[in-house]
Amino acid sequence: MEEFEALLNESFEIDTPDEGSVVKGKVLAIEAGQAIIDVGYKMEGRVDLKEFAQPGEAPEIHVGDEVEVYLRQVENARGEAVISHEMARREAAWDRLEKAYADENRVEGAIFGRVKGGFTVDLGGAVAFLPGSQVDVRPVRDAGPLMGLKQPFQILKMDRRRGNIVVSRRAILEESRAEQRAEVIGNLAEGQAVDGVVKNITEYGAFVDLGGVDGLLHVTDMAWRRVNHPSEIVTIGETIKVQVIKINKETHRISLGMKQLQDDPWDTVEAKFPLDSTHTGRVTNITDYGAFVELEPGVEGLVHVSEMSWTKKNVHPGKIVSTSQEVEVMVLEIDTQKRRVSLGLKQTMRNPWEVFAETHPEGTHVEGDVKNITEFGLFVGLDGDIDGMVHLSDISWDQRGEEAIQNYQKGDTVQAVVTEVDVEKERISLSIKALDDSFSGATEGVKRGSIITVEVTAIEDGGIEVEYEGAKSFIRRSDLSRDRSEQRPERFQVGDKVDVRVTNVDQKTRRLGLSIKAREIAEEKEAVEQYGSSDSGASLGDILGAALKGDE
């Protein structure tokens, strides 16, 4: 009996499975959504059928099937073994996954749920986390088509103690993509024309699928003309023909072009747009230094700000022309190597200073508004959007320039006379005081040497002020008499009439040069010529007496 008992106990110790181990069992029955499994030694347990189902599939289990289960407890309150098929799969899966992780091998799994930041993946019994960034090479908006689909994954990180596994689907795709890219790129050559499908459009160009590898079609290589946005040329999903411009073997980047398959319009620029010819173009872009004008698709020229207007200086080009405006321009210079055309806008219009000089010769009366007042004169707006200047010295006859200019304000309408037009220097000189031609009328017929009668209007220490027909002049002390003793201003009184000789007529300064002394000398000379000479022995008194007697 003792030997039998020892053998029996030994048998129990050897054959009875330990709790926490994986054992094999046989399906005895399936009822109420559970499988009844015999794990030996008259121990039976129940397992929910869902533990035998793959994600998205129906459970596959039948009576008589042998299955592995995890023995959690030998006997519960009902005398049944507590077992789990899922935990058995998990333990087996962890063993398998740890080996795959160590060997850097891929593992197969299926996405079955969505969690914060990503998805859950069933790796044949072990649940892994798939971050959202590791689902695809590009952001995935709808992961529905990927759910429940068996596919390979790469294990990025795993911790059995904590039960954490992180996997990536993107790493698999990138690896496959790299192999595919290498194969496609190997079949491409620079200069080759190929068909591609537009996959994406950005601000700077479009990405074109060349059959597994993407190439960049930059916006500047889409057309010879200026393209504001790639969507003007291509649309997503469109099949286009492109030329391979450059292939970077290291980075696998491919540069594509469309315009390279078209005729270069610059080949015929010199023939179509000869120098000094005028053409109508469209303004495509405006900058601080000028405006770009499209002469034909693919050919643009620059109108520099200095060539935009004859009259508008130091203004932004946007105040002269606007985008999409059609303008007439002249070709000034062509540089085919640098692909540059210099254009002129003002050259298509006549120089306004030339026009003004033709239509307003010197002496013409003009009218305009005071545009600006400076320390040296007034600027007056004239026809043709040009300005003329009235210098301080040309404002008034009677006032000093600094005083006369105080009588004017910006916006005042003034009249003036054109005194000079300098086309090369773009200057027009005007005179306001020239409008008063009373001096010319008063002195008409008066010339140098004439004897006229003037009226004394003021007595000063240096001489006397006189007036002739409204024109005032000043006779200096030294010109009051040929005799020094008589060169005294005080011997005259205001209102006296005096005969004087005209020594100068200055129309510009409206001044008459007058002299009593010169008149007396002239009279003496004339008397000597008529009644004698110094050689005849006659005295001056005799000559003058004879002259006076002759007058009587």
TrEMBL record:
Gene3D superfamilies: Nucleic acid-binding proteins. SMART domains: S1. The keyword Flavoprotein does not apply. GO terms for cellular component: cytosolic small ribosomal subunit. One of its GO terms (molecular function) is structural constituent of ribosome. Keywords: Repeat, Ribonucleoprotein, Ribosomal protein, RNA-binding. Residues 20-86, 104-170, 191-259, 276-346, 363-433, 449-517 form the S1 motif domain. It comes from the Bacteria. GO terms for biological process: translation. Belongs to the bacterial ribosomal protein bS1 family. NCBIfam families: PRK06299.1-2, PRK06299.1-5, rpsA. Binds mRNA; thus facilitating recognition of the initiation point. It is needed to translate mRNA with a short Shine-Dalgarno (SD) purine-rich sequence. This is 30S ribosomal protein S1. It comes from Palleronia salina.
